[in-house]
Amino acid sequence: QVQLVESGGGLVQPGGSLRLSCAASGSISNINAMGWYRQAPGKQRDLVASITSGGTTNYTDSVKGRFTISRDNAKNTVYLQMNSLKPEDTAVYYCNADVKIWPFKTAYSYWGQGTQVTVSS
C-alpha cells in the first residue's frame, strides 16, 4: 500500500507564507509526476502545480510568481512554497502522486488526506 501524508497547512494573514509538504511511503519503486490540487467551498478541485520526475514544473496562472513546487526524490517528498498569499488561496490542498509499486509496472494515482489553508485577516 501507498500513503501520502500532508503537513504544513494553517491560518495565515494576507501577504504571508506557508510551505506544504507531502511524503509518500510504501513499497515504492518509482514516482512519476507529483502535484498539488486545491478545492474551495462550492468549487471544483483544480490543479495548482505539478512537477515531473525530471523537474519540469507547471503552474496555474493565478499562482505564477508566488508559488514554487519542488521535490526530493530520495525522500519521496513534494513541497509547495506559497508566498504572498491572498484570501482567494483559501482552500483544502491535496497532494497527488503517480506511483509504481514494486514489482509492478503499472502506475496508479494516489491522494493525500488534504490540509486546510486559510488566508484571512
Question: Can you give a write-up of this model?
Answer:
By secondary structure, this protein is mostly beta strands. The chain is built from no helices and 11 strands. It has strands at 2-7, 10-12, 18-26, 28-39, 46-51, 57-59, 67-72, 77-82, 91-101, 107-111, 115-119. Strands 2, 4, 5, 6, 9, 10 and 11 form a 7-stranded mixed sheet that branches. The protein has a 4-stranded antiparallel sheet with strand order 1-3-8-7, with no helix packed on it. Strand 5 and strand 6 form a beta hairpin. The protein is elongated, with a radius of gyration of 14 Å.
Concise account of the structure shown:
The chain is mainly β and 121 residues long.
Order of helices and strands: EEEEEEEEEEE
Radius of gyration, in Å, reads 14 Å
Number of strands: 11
Q: Structural class, from helix and strand content?
A: mainly beta
Residues in β-strands, percent: over 45%
Q: What overall form do the CA principal axes indicate?
A: elongated
Main sheet record: 7 strands, mixed
The helix fraction, in percent, is under 10%
Arithmetic mean of pLDDT? 97
Number of helices: 0
What is the multimeric organization of the chains shown?
Answer: single chain
Cα(first) to Cα(last) distance is 41 Å
Low-confidence stretches: none
Label this structure with key terms.
single chain, 121 residues, mainly beta, seven-stranded mixed β-sheet, four-stranded antiparallel β-sheet, 0% helix
Topology overview:
Elements: E1 2-7, E2 10-12, E3 18-26, E4 28-39, E5 46-51, E6 57-59, E7 67-72, E8 77-82, E9 91-101, E10 107-111, E11 115-119
Parallel strand pairs: 2-11
Antiparallel strand pairs: 1-3, 3-8, 4-5, 4-9, 5-6, 7-8, 9-10, 9-11
